[in-house]
Amino acid sequence: MGPDQLKYSKTHEWVAIEGNIATIGITDFAVHLLTDLVFAELPAVGQKLVQGQPFGEVESVKAVSDLYAPVSGEVIEKNDRLTERRGPDGKTIPAELELLTTSPFADGWMIKAKVSNPAELANLLDQSQYKSHCEASDH
Amino acid sequence: MSLRRTPLFDWHTNHNGRMVEFGGWEMPVQYTSIVDEHHTVRKGVGLFDISHMGRLSFIGADASRLLAHLLTCRVDNLVDGQIRYGLVCNDAGGILDDVLVNRIDATSFGLVVNAGNREKIVDWIGKRTADIAAANQSLDLRFQDHTLETAMIAVQGPLALKLLNQVTSESFDSMKYYTGRSIKLEGVPAFVSRTGYTGEDGFELIVPNASATGLWETLMESGRDMGVKPCGLGCRDTLRLEAAMPLYGHELLETIDPLTAGLASSVKLEKPEFIGRDALAGIAEQTNRNVRVGLRLGSRRIAREHSEIFVGADRVGEVTSGTFSPTLEQAIAMAYVTAEHSKIGSSVEIDIRGKRESAEVVALPFYKRAKHGT
Prior knowledge:
The complex is a heterodimer. Chain A is α+β, with helices and mostly antiparallel strands.
């Protein structure tokens, strides 16, 4: 799904909807603002999401930023490549946070959720509205 | 109060500098990436606009005597061109500022103070000189603040010497660390010192405002082949933290004394007199003072200022600065902890936004450059 088909929150999360499944990440604009990401904390599978409420955080050298759920629902999958994990051999595999820079709208996805209230999608921005929002906040 | 701007403000905003408030000034925090700018200074050379720092001058037969009264370090034995780190303390031994004092000659000295403390220190000096005058002691002294009429540029990194030699008609090869001298830069008077706040070799240049942008552009142009980059306050902070240099407002406060801050080598209690001396002599006798330590975290999460430190249920300290170390690729912090838990190798836990992360007390600095010939 290309960036033109996504929905956006004012807090710079994007969401791709397929059926009742939402894939959620943060935009290239957010990644550019943050720079120097060092850590991401994502919710566990099964965690409930409430639109507009924090579901995780990303930390850059400068600051910590909350991630806000663009839709309500329940987490069914998270992108393990964004957090430190153990490989099959028991060795630690470092987080691949560079995916947020190199591929924010694809490989850098964060979580997938089952959407509980599709009507909330109307509260989100389309690509052109989101672009205007970014231009207004980029000073 | 509106924020002050340095003469390089337009250059910064024209080159993607992200401007933030710092010490009452609008300063660039970064141009590209903090980590990238950090590595540039560790491996090559970077330029910093540090015009926000306060630049004061003391001229007269009593300049040395007054500075010896104001500072915790010795001033009387400085030689021409020498620079020394010291502290300005209040009568209780609390730190008002940390400064660099430089002797130009027997009757001419300079003082570089922190941006956010400049007005406080200027007032403090005014009051203290008035006290001396009130005690019927005449002072042969002219005290001036040159901050707003000059700019200050730091050239930092292993290639700083090469770059500076390239843009001036003289060589700085033999200039010793913590010395400085006046030179002419393209016909304009400038003061050059071999100093910095990055843990690398480097220089700091003071020039009149009108010359600032020209000098900056000359350095950028001349250093192009070396990969010179403009660097912001973001990496200035990660660089100084790796080098374990304290920052006023974080490790240093009016409620902290320099002995607790680990700066005893800059506090000369054997001096006959200086402001705060008696209080500091008393503090020096105390046992079980808190200790400034370095911490290495187990995770990549960053312990920020004011994060609390625990051993079991006991709160044993507080973080003063924390960041992600680009050199070590690990989260690091400086903190004050109780003496009992300050030993290298001690294990502690840091509460980071409600979650405990393990950390180990490690030797400071976190990073030390290979020594050069100077």
